[in-house]
Amino acid sequence: MTTLYIVVPCYNEQEVLPETSKRFLAKLKALIDGGKITDSSRILFVNDGSKDKTWDLIAQYHEQDCHFSGLKLSRNRGHQNALLAGLMTAKEHADCVVSLDADLQDDINAVDEMLAKFEEGCDIVYGVRSSRAKDTFFKRTTAVGFYKFMRALGANVLENHADYRLMSKRSLDALAEFSEVNLFLRGMVPLVGFKFATVSYVREERFAGESKYPLKKMLSFAFDGITSFSVKPLSIITSIGFIVFVVSILAAVYALVTFILGHAVSGWTSTIISLWFLGGVQLICLGVVGQYIGKIYNEVKRRPRYIIEDFLNQ
Ligand code: UDP
Ligand code: MG
Question: Which of 34, 117, 141, 198 is positioned for an S-S bond with 122, CB 3.0–4.6 A?
Answer without folding.
Answer: 117
